Each structure stands twice: as C-alpha cells, then as structure tokens.
C-alpha cells in the first residue's frame, strides 16, 4: 500500500470517528513527514494528545524533519495537555527552524 493511500485512509477513518480503524499508518513501510503529520493530527480530535508528543518524538528519533503542519499540530496537542513547558520547547524548535 502506498503511503498516499494509507495517509488518506487514516485521515478518512479519523474524520469519521473510527480511529480504531486507522491502523494504516503501521502498514506504511517508509514513513515520511506527511505520514507522521497525518497520524499526529489524527490524535488531536479524539483526545489522544499524549500520543501527539510520543509520535513526534519517535519521528525525530527516526530523523524525519517536521514541516510547519507537523509543528502546528504538535503545538495544538501540547496546548490540550496543558504542558506549558513542553509547548515552550516546541515553540523554541519552531523559532529555530524559522531563523536558521
């Protein structure tokens, strides 16, 4: 299955409130920034904000470079968890990306 199809299916199931069916992310062999951003953004509307941070950290471990959509989703997830210190760290990462 291509990552495009898997990303689209993951998004569709999450928008339909069927997050339990959004297992297509795991089937993607080579996960790119779009794949990671798809799964990160899918956690927010279903209240799985702790998974947002966990997925982002895993993405960074695998040396996938986040884009502006990824970072916006992570900031949103941090806001929902009320972890101001973590949100500030991600804000610093955003500023670093902007000015380097």
Structure description:
The termini are far apart. Helix content is 71%, strand content 0%. The model has no long low-confidence stretch (mean pLDDT 81). By secondary structure, the chain is mostly helical. Helix 3 (33-43) runs parallel beside helix 5 and helix 5 (68-81) packs antiparallel against helix 6 (84-99). It has 6 helices and no strands. The chain has one domain. The protein is globular, with a radius of gyration of 13 Å.
Blueprint of the fold:
Layout: H1 3-15, H2 24-27, H3 33-43, H4 49-61, H5 68-81, H6 84-99
Helix pairs in contact: 1-3, 3-4, 3-5, 4-5, 5-6
- Helical amount among residues, as a percent range? over 70%
Strand content: under 5%
**Compute the gyration radius: what is it?**
13 Å
Give a count of the beta strands, DSSP E runs of length 2 or more: 0
Task: Summarize the helix and strand pattern as letters.
Answer: HHHHHH
Intertermini distance: 36 Å
Count of distinct structural domains:
1
Q: Which regions are unreliable across 5 or more consecutive residues at pLDDT < 50? A: none
Structural class: mainly alpha
């Amino acid at each position: 299955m291509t990552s495009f199809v898997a990303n689209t299916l993951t998004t569709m199931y999450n928008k339909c409130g069927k997050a339990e069916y959004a297992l297509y992310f795991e089937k993607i062999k080579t996960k790119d920034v779009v794949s990671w951003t798809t799964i990160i953004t899918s956690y927010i509307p279903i209240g799985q904000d702790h998974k947002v941070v966990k997925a982002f950290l895993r993405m960074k471990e695998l040396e996938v470079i986040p884009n502006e959509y990824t970072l916006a989703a992570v900031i949103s997830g941090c806001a929902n968890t009320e972890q101001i210190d973590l949100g500030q760290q991600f804000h610093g990462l955003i500023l670093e990306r902007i000015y380097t």
